[in-house]
Amino acid sequence: MRRLYSHLSESTTSTSSQSNSWFNSREVVRDLNVNLSFCSLNKLNCFIRPQKDRLSNLQKKNVIYKINCRDCDASYVGQTKRTLKTRVKEHKNDIRKSDGNLSVLSEHRLELNHEFDWDDVEVVDSERWLYRRRITEMLHIKLQNNGLNLQSDTDFLHHSYLSILNNLH
Ligand SMILES: [Zn+2]
Predict the structure, then answer these.
(1) How far, in Å, is the centroid of ligand 1 from the Cα of 117?
(2) Domain residues of the chain, as ranges?
(3) Centre of ligand 1 from the C-alpha of residue 146, in Å
(4) pLDDT tens per residue across all 169 residues of the chain
(5) Crossing angle between the packed helical segments 104-112 and 84-96, to the nearest 10 degrees
(6) What is the pTM of this model?
(7) Rounded to the nearest whole angstrom, what is the distance from the C-alpha of residue 20 to the centroid of ligand 1?
(8) Known InterPro entries for this protein (predicted)?
């Protein structure tokens, strides 16, 4: 599987000569954002597809995952450096709590009486480095048709990413 973030960053190779540390630098991130505008939309689209390998997905680490509602097109995107199994378990435990601050998943369940497809959580991407994983997570949050993620989950995402993503829809 080619990864979304790696593909996006290919178009910046010529300008980010700081190479290895570019993802730590704000300036280079700005370059990346600008250069993304030239990324081929069709090519990008090819790399945005979920994996279907359900059993081994749960054992994977450093992933961006998507939890789908069984009863409507709502979904939630998150990322974790731990195994997907561990993170999904946490989500399930959160949902059992019915008091205090409800998660967006709990709210959706309680308001609409819907249930999530816990047995088929998708792995939509993987990135070993936290920074890349967060950017990739934000891209996939924005790619949802009916995302339950909070607005604040994508505050950091540069507007030039958004123009590309809007064209993908
Ligand atoms: Zn739903």
Answers:
(1) 10
(2) 57-166
(3) 9
(4) 557 776 665 554 444 444 444 344 454 455 454 445 444 444 555 555 555 555 589 999 999 999 999 999 999 999 999 999 999 999 998 887 766 778 899 999 999 999 999 999 999 999 999 988 998 999 999 999 999 999 888 887 877 777 777 776 5
(5) 50
(6) 0.69
(7) 42
(8) GIY-YIG_endonuc (IPR000305), GIY-YIG_endonuc_sf (IPR035901)
